[in-house]
Amino acid sequence: MKKYILLVFVVIIALAGYFLLARGQHKLAANAAVSVTDSTGAKVHIPAEPKRIVFLNASNLEIFTSIGGKAVGRPTSTSYPDDIKESIKDIPEVGMIHAPNLEKIMSLKPDLVVGTNVPFHVMLRKPLEMAGVPLYLNMINSYEDVLKSIDDFGRFADREKEAAAKRAQIEKEYAALTQDVQKGKGPKVLIIFGSPDSFNMSTKKSFGGDLAERLGAVNIADKAENVKDSSYIPLSMEFVAKENPDIVMLITMGGSKEILEKLRANMRDNAIWHDVNAVKNNRVYQLPPSLFTVNPGTHTIEAMKIMKEYMYGEAK
């Protein structure tokens, strides 16, 4: 009997040791760093399974949340889509996209910070690295960038199955929406991005320009001199008059009514606009700020449907 009890005791000790070892190995694997390249071309060493991710911009957080990811910090923003507002309302804020609060970020003890390629985020790389926190900058300038972000965040959140389903859904809707589109055979369009300081033309390197091209539009901004890899170039009335777009689509910073009225007043008062087909035929449209001022992420198809309706009068 004593031998039996001793044997059972030995087995229990052995099993306990095995599970402790397995747990330790799993923990090491979870904490192991993997090397990835972000949108700036920087090599970033991030945890294989990050548990405490802070986001600095709304677009990246929207995609992450849409596949079931749970962040510990988020930017202060009024641009969140309705379908995620409830799920993120209790997540601590770390400041506006252009003014992230480093002290607040660090107080959340992140093991990964995700931002976008803007100066206010780039400048955080050094202090975060000194604190042992990796910074991953993810730009979303195209439909393909949305799909890639879904894949990447699926791995970050250990939600690859959900990410694959979300990607498949978007790809299916995209195929249906673009099946009757002929590249470069659509109307000539001008996409104007208005900010308090300036008006610019969106090229195919911008998100709106990328969507327009995928819908068959001929974007006049891509014909301008010295475009190169620019997402936006200054609005030139002489160039607009020469190219004579069929449609003008307006995007205003934050959906500002003041910026929109300033542009409409310019169209009324500047005689050059009067001979532009888009103005003569009353085909000047404001694109919804919630889908175009801020990247729409997983709502990209919704944005494309609106743009297609303006271009062709339908959105199948």
From TrEMBL:
The record, for NCBIfam families, names: TroA_like (NF038402)
Q: Which family does the record assign?
A: Belongs to the bacterial solute-binding protein 8 family.
Q: Which PROSITE patterns match?
A: FE_B12_PBP
| Species this chain originates from | Phascolarctobacterium succinatutens CAG:287
Q: Where is the Fe/B12 periplasmic-binding domain?
A: 52-315
Do you know which SUPFAM superfamilies this protein is assigned to?
Helical backbone' metal receptor
GO biological processes: cellular response to iron ion
PANTHER family given for it? Answer: HIGH-AFFINITY HEME UPTAKE SYSTEM PROTEIN ISDE, VITAMIN B12-BINDING PROTEIN
| InterPro entries assigned | ABC_Transporter_SBP, ABC_transptr_periplasmic_BD, Vit_B12_bind_prot
User: Is Signal included in the keywords of this UniProt record?
Assistant: yes
Q: Respond yes or no to whether keyword Cell division is given for this record.
A: no
Q: What is this protein called?
A: Periplasmic binding protein
Keyword annotations for this protein, in alphabetical order, are: Signal
